[in-house]
Automatic annotation (TrEMBL):
The entry's keywords: Signal
Keyword Signal in annotation: yes
Keyword set includes Disulfide bond: no
First and last residue of the signal peptide: 1-18
Residue ranges of every copy of the EfeO-type cupredoxin-like domain listed in the record: 64-153
Coiled-coil ranges per UniProt: none
Name by which UniProt lists this protein: EfeO-type cupredoxin-like domain-containing protein
Biased amino acid composition, Low complexity: 23-50
Region ranges (Disordered): 23-56
SUPFAM superfamilies attached to this UniProt entry: Cupredoxins
Organism for this UniProt entry: Candidatus Doudnabacteria bacterium RIFCSPLOWO2_01_FULL_44_21
Amino acid sequence: MKLKIFVIVLALVFVAAACNKNQPTNENTQDNNDQTQVEMPPATSSTMPTPDEPNTPETIVNFDTSATISMNANGFEPSTITIKKGSTVTFVNNDKKNHWPASAPHPIHTDYPAFDPRQAIAASASWSFTFDQAGTWKFHDHLNPSFFGSVTVEY
Ligand SMILES: [Cu+2]
């Protein structure tokens, strides 16, 4: 009988020891959490391709070009153009009269408010505007709205 009691006591000691071992095991779990945090940088590195994606549009923006639209007695020439986003269009007044290129609609120019020199362009003078918003922007001559055209801005 004493042996059985001794064995039971031993068993209890082992159980207690096992419980003590569980605490270090919990610490190991915390270590595993640390390892999980260490695994975060690889997750961040897997996010690396995402910064590469914005680089693609940036590269397209670097296709920055310029275009010229002549303003003469017959209107705009060319009256319709397509450009890359970020391109600059120069409106050159080749007429003897003033001209005033501006965004639709006349007379408030609210489609693309910045697309408006807010003053007439004198003969032989010019006005440049950089289109940084994609879309098709209709424009007209504010001094002669029967002259009109459009600028299509692509990404
Ligand atoms: Cu107008």
